[in-house]
Amino acid sequence: MAKRETKTERKERIEKVLHALDSEYGTEYICYLNHETPWQLLIAVILSAQCTDARVNLVTVDLFQKYKSPKNFAEAELKELEKDIHSLGFYHMKAKNIISCCQDLMNKFGGNVPDTMEELLSLAGVGRKTANVILGNIYDQPSIVVDTHVKRISIKLGFAKSEDPEKIEYELMKVLPKEHWILWNIQIITLGRSICVARKPKCGECFLRELCPSAQV
């Protein structure tokens, strides 16, 4: 049975993990969804559910040329918008949510994307993950986005225990310094896509292998 980690040891390991991530991936804030405005990012994140960012970017190139404002989306015909985003999957619910979301943006927020968790969660199709993406990337508010990579790897590292994304968010908020909350998502996505892949993690190639209790070397 492995020796139980003390609070001091855990804190030191977390600091080493963060230093290693910064050294490997840098500390630049990167958003993988292409956008030019806050409302474009909001729609892109809604579209990204159960879909890759790369696929979303292929669709939004034309989508944002056709619909040039939240008002255009608010007035869109459901069937037409479904056709426009059909290739992304779950297109009926996504189209319905986008139209409803943009109607609320126009009617309640003057066409602007709100900057609080409570207001963002009032929008159709917006959960904590989407809200945190907006708060972090648009408004530079410290936030932790729990996607599939962050969930899986945070558990592997022993930084979270829950399977529930919202609970994981709060677990990570307790152990990660606030200045690293946004970076955690950016860096862990990169790690999850390249090394700590879900089906077959490349533990032998991982720069965190000496710091990861789940490493299989």
Automatic annotation (TrEMBL):
Its EC number is 4.2.99.18. One of its GO terms (biological process) is base-excision repair, AP site formation. It is an enzyme of class 4 (lyase). [4Fe-4S] cluster binds at residues 196, 203, 206, 212. Its cofactor is [4Fe-4S] cluster. The keyword Aminoacyl-tRNA synthetase does not apply. It catalyses: 2'-deoxyribonucleotide-(2'-deoxyribose 5'-phosphate)-2'-deoxyribonucleotide-DNA = a 3'-end 2'-deoxyribonucleotide-(2,3-dehydro-2,3-deoxyribose 5'-phosphate)-DNA + a 5'-end 5'-phospho-2'-deoxyribonucleoside-DNA + H(+). The keyword ATP-binding does not apply. Keywords: 4Fe-4S, DNA damage, DNA repair, DNA-binding, Endonuclease, Glycosidase, Hydrolase, Iron, Iron-sulfur, Lyase, Metal-binding, Nuclease. PROSITE patterns: ENDONUCLEASE_III_1, ENDONUCLEASE_III_2. Residues 47-194 form the HhH-GPD domain. GO terms for molecular function: 4 iron, 4 sulfur cluster binding; class I DNA-(apurinic or apyrimidinic site) endonuclease activity; DNA binding; DNA N-glycosylase activity; metal ion binding. Binds 1 [4Fe-4S] cluster. NCBIfam families: nth (TIGR01083). DNA repair enzyme that has both DNA N-glycosylase activity and AP-lyase activity. The DNA N-glycosylase activity releases various damaged pyrimidines from DNA by cleaving the N-glycosidic bond, leaving an AP (apurinic/apyrimidinic) site. The AP-lyase activity cleaves the phosphodiester bond 3' to the AP site by a beta-elimination, leaving a 3'-terminal unsaturated sugar and a product with a terminal 5'-phosphate. Belongs to the Nth/MutY family. This is Endonuclease III. It comes from Lacrimispora algidixylanolytica.
